[in-house]
Amino acid sequence: MANPFIKNIDLLDVSNMLYDRDQSFADKMDREDPLRQYKADFYFPKNQEGVEMTYLCGNSLGLQSKQTQAAIQQVSEQWKDYGVKGHFNGEHPWVPFHLGLKENMSKIVGALPSEVTLMNTLTVNLHLMLTSFFRPEGRRNKILIEQDVFPSDRYAIESHLEWHGLSIEDHLIYIPKSTHNGLVDEKIIKDFLTENGEEIALVLIGGVNYYTGQFLNIPAITQWAHEQGCIIGFDLAHAVGNVPLALHDANVDFAVWCTYKYLNAGPGSIAGAFVHERHHDDRGIPKLKGWWGHDAEIRFKMRDAFKPAPGIESWQISCQPILSLAPVKASLEMFIAADMKAIRNKSILLTGYLEFLLKELKTDRIKILTPALQAQRGCQLSIFIESADESVHHELTKAGMITDWRNPGVVRVAPAPLYNGYRDVWEFVKALKKVLQIGG
Ligand SMILES: *Cc1c(COP(=O)(O)O)cnc(C)c1O
Predict the structure, then answer these.
(1) Same domain, 120 and 200
(2) Does one domain contain both 371 and 418?
């Protein structure tokens, strides 16, 4: 099954793009931007003087849209007006509330609706997936992860090794480092899997690395893992809503993601999970059960033995937190209306512009860690600044920029296509130039 939302993405070649340093170019691009209408839907944080700041931090927490408040308000009103009857009555009854979300979410990650659900938060979903898919057997009892894995993922994995009585030292293994920039060399993954595959029960990788912004080739890595008989899962925290995904076609076993970064669903918003359809009817897979994983048709009969709901829904445990799902609903509707293809196209151009402006700067203190190839990155560029400390970050904030800082010396800048434009990128580079006192 092809993802209709990404099928036709012909990756624009930004190397042929005639970018220009002049501010008038940025303004012209903003005027002609097919997604320009969306910016007005968002609230931007202001500085102490009440001036809106330039927000380039969607990799950490996306901005609130005006539709979000309305969606929360709607649930609140329905509860007020209907009480328990809200489960089946009102504009958006709560029992089937998540069905429309599954439909929209599945399009964004390239999956069947039955393969996707919204539940819990990312690390909790990762625990549920590890419970089901880490099944060490004989010599095949190790977990393979990246060197630069997100800490929460590593903690989750360590706890499952401990749970199975396996030492972390011998059973948690890392993809060997490649030489350049801390990027992952996909060929090294392939070779490592070929050599060590039969000892590896499970591979877990970030689709887009949170630190470098590298977007890995998910279908290829999945295939290499499967050739060695390993289960493979992806953490898509930095990929979802950012890059085109086709989880079903790629044959990925499972994936988890949060919705508060590029998907703008608010702090700690309800997360997503994917389990490939080929695992749905496998009764041998262990699961942590709860009544919301039980067949919905007979859920309220309350007396039956556990009968798994179809698809990934059998991984659900508790009833749906509708108030928390309301912002996810609003956000997904916006992504579907804007269309992932248009979002990705703008993203490629916009991040290409950021890269162009950075390269024009007359300094050798700046190095972009993120891959130069657009197929290997999303919207984020991780910019390493030689001999810089956090004061650079504070100066950038004073200059009206909201970005984020990671030691040692990395500014992560993520122009989000729905609410950022070319002028934002232009203003950021202007501020960086001033803070680092770069002439020319
Ligand atoms: C943001 C992020 C998380 C966050 O996990 P939570 O459970 O939502 O707190 C996990 N993994 C990666 C790679 C992330 O970027």
Answers:
(1) yes
(2) yes
* Closest residue to atom 2 of ligand 1, CA basis: 237
Ligand 1 closest atom vs CA 153: 11
6 in a structural domain: no
- Predicted TM-score of the model (pTM): 0.95
Domain carrying residue 190:
72-335
The helix (run of H) or strand (run of E) holding residue 352 is helix 340-360
Locate the ligand 1 atom nearest the alpha carbon of residue 150 and give its number.
13
| Residues 94 and 116 reside in one and the same domain | yes
- Is residue 12 a part of any domain in this protein? no
Substitution candidate for ligand 1 out of 126, 210, 234 with most atoms within 8 A of CB: 210
Q: Please check whether residues 111 and 213 belong to one and the same domain.
A: yes
DSSP 233-292: EEE-TTTTTTS---HHHHT-SEEEE-SSSTT---TT---EEEE-GGGTT-TTS-----GG
For the segment 316-352, what is each residue's pLDDT rounded down to a tens digit? 999 999 999 999 999 999 999 999 999 999 999 999 9
| Residue of 129, 152, 209, 212 with the most ligand 1 atoms within 8 Å of its CB, for mutation | 152
**pLDDT for 146-193, tens place per residue?**
988 999 999 999 999 999 999 999 999 999 887 667 789 899 999 999
